[in-house]
Design a protein that fits this description.
Elements: E1 3-10, H1 17-25, E2 31-38, H2 44-53, E3 58-65, H3 69-89, E4 93-99, H4 106-129
Parallel strand pairs: 1-2, 1-3, 3-4
């Protein structure tokens, strides 16, 4: 069986997160990738919905959020759009945003973006190929982008 995974990124991003996601997904022989690029994060929702309506099983929305307050507001609006798109499509869209305030240096931001894109690409694959496998990680404090925080033990 072939799993169709959509990868939608933006031209605004300062790191090619799609390249990272595509590298991870290309390791899987049972994946067909549908790749699209849009200008900015507020365009992700409609393009992801179009990809899902075109036959994708799941979609990854890769977005870069600038450092200004208006950028955070736009990210919030984009997130609401993505939530609506996934509800309308009845399929998952993994929202993979990187905020410039998350890193102190360009190298740190790049590492966060690459890590997050790669890990979410694998999450998307598992969600369609082996959804029960993710249950093993429930409550483990696993994070995408930075180091895991681990579980709270009583």
């Amino acid at each position: 069986m072939k799993y169709k995974i959509g990868v939608v990124d933006t031209a605004f991003a300062r790191v090619d997160m799609a390249k990272c996601a595509l590298e991870e997904l290309s390791k899987k022989k049972d994946v067909e990738i549908i790749r699209r690029t849009v200008p900015g994060i507020k365009d992700l929702a409609v393009e992801c919905k179009r990809v899902l309506n075109g036959g994708a099983d799941i979609c990854i929305a890769l977005g870069w959020v600038g450092g200004a307050e208006i950028d955070r507001q736009c990210a919030h609006e984009a997130s609401i759009g993505i939530q609506n798109a996934k509800l309308m499509a009845g399929k998952h869209i993994l929202e993979v945003f990187v905020f410039e305030f998350e890193g102190k240096t360009p190298n740190e931001l790049s590492a966060i973006a690459e890590n997050r894109a790669r890990k979410h690409a694998m999450n998307a694959y598992l969600m369609v190929s082996d959804p029960k496998s993710l249950s093993r990680n429930a409550g483990m404090g696993i994070r995408q982008g930075k180091g895991d925080v681990g579980p709270i033990r009583k």
